[in-house]
Specification:
Layout: E1 6-10, E2 16-23, E3 26-31, H1 33-66
Antiparallel strand pairs: 1-2, 2-3
Length: about 70
């Protein structure tokens, strides 16, 4: 499982963890608390790994397209 967004903290004195997602030009915050913080970190990291894979695939496909190797 994965989730696009980032973990942010809100508050100066008592910082609270939130999951932040910008969608449809609006920022949405979801309070995580300590119970969901670790799971949110895993989901966010998985999304980062997916982005890396997509970037690598894009680079490879551009090289294949340049050499007319895609059919």
């Amino acid at each position: 499982p994965l989730m696009r967004g980032s973990i942010v903290t809100n508050g100066v004195r008592h910082s609270q963890p939130y999951f932040s997602l910008t969608k449809d030009k609006r920022t949405r915050l979801m309070y995580l608390g300590e119970g969901r913080l670790e799971q949110a970190k895993i989901l966010s990291a998985n999304y980062g790994k997916l982005q890396e894979i997509v970037e690598e695939m894009t680079t490879l496909n551009m090289a294949l397209l340049k050499n007319n190797a895609l059919k």
